[in-house]
Fold this sequence. Notes:
The complex is a heterodimer of chains A (about 150) and B (about 80). Chain A has a single domain, classed as Aldehyde Oxidoreductase, domain 3. In chain A, a hairpin with a 6-residue loop joins strand 7 and strand 8 (about 135). Helix content of chain A is about 35%, strand content about 35%. In chain A, strands 1-4-6-2 form a four-stranded mixed beta sheet, sandwiched between helices. A four-stranded antiparallel beta sheet of chain A has the order 5-3-7-8, with no helix packed on it. With about 150 residues, chain A is of the alpha+beta class. Chain B is of the alpha+beta class. Chain B has a single domain, classed as Ubiquitin-like (UB roll) (Roll), CATH 3.10.20. Chain B contains three helices and five strands; from the N terminus they run βαβααβββ. Chain B has helices at about 5-15, 30-35, 40-45, and strands spanning about 1-5, 15-20, 55, 60, 75. In chain B, strands 2-1-5-3-4 form a five-stranded mixed beta sheet. Chain B starts with a strand and ends in a 6-residue tail after the last strand. The chains are: A alpha+beta (about 150), B alpha+beta (about 80). The interface between A and B is medium-sized, with 28 and 16 residues.
Amino acid sequence: MIAPTIRIQREDFDAAAEQRALTAARRDVGALVSFIGLCRDEGGRLAALELEHYPGMAEDEVARVAAEACARWPLSGLTIIHRYGKIAPGANIVLVVAASSHRRAAFEAADFLMDYLKTRAPFWKKEHLISGDAAGWVEAKAEDDAAADRWRR
Amino acid sequence: MKAVYFAWVRERVGTPEEEIAPPAAVVTVADLIAWLTARGENYAYAFENARTIRAALDRKHVKHDAPIAGVREIAFFPPMTGG
C-alpha cells in the first residue's frame, strides 16, 4: 500500500506542483483527481475565515482517514494538505489529490476523503465579517454527516 | 490529566488547556462533563448542550460512554467544520 503525503500547515500550497509530484517519473497512473476547497466571501460579507485546529490530532486523524481510503481503493498516490490560520476569500483551504490506474477509484477516493475530512478532522472555522460585527463560529451541517454516512458499509 | 478545549468550547471555558484531577467516581467522558459542569458557570455554559460536544481521548474520537482511566489528554470541542 502507498504512503500518503499529509501536511497540516499555515502556508499556502501549489496544487499543480502537488499533482506533478504524484505523476512524475511514473507510467502507471491513469487518473488523477484533484479537489481544492477555497474560502468563499459569502456574498461579500466575509473578510476572512480563521481555521483553528487540534495540533497532533489533526495530523493523526487525517492519516487515519487516508489509510481508510488507501485500504478501500487501489490508489497509486495520495496527497492531502489542510491549512489553518487566517484565510482570505479566494485563498486555498484544503487540497486532496488522488491518483490511480483508473478514474473511478480516484474520483471515489477524493469524494470519500472530503466527506470524512469534514466530519472527522479536528478543524473549526470562524467567520470574520467585513461589517465588523462579532466573529462567529461556523455551525456543522447535518448534510455533511449524511454525506459521510453514505460511505458506510 | 490534561484537558484541552477548542473553538467555542475553549472560548466559553476561558482557557485552551488545564490540568484536572477528577475524583475516582468520574469514570466516563459523560461523568467528566458532569463534573466539569458543576465547577463553574463558564463550564456550565460550555457544556450546556452536552450531547452536541465531541470528545477525544489521547487524540482519538470517542463517544461519551468511553472510560477515561489512564488517559493523558482529553479534548472537548464542537462538531468539526473543516474541509
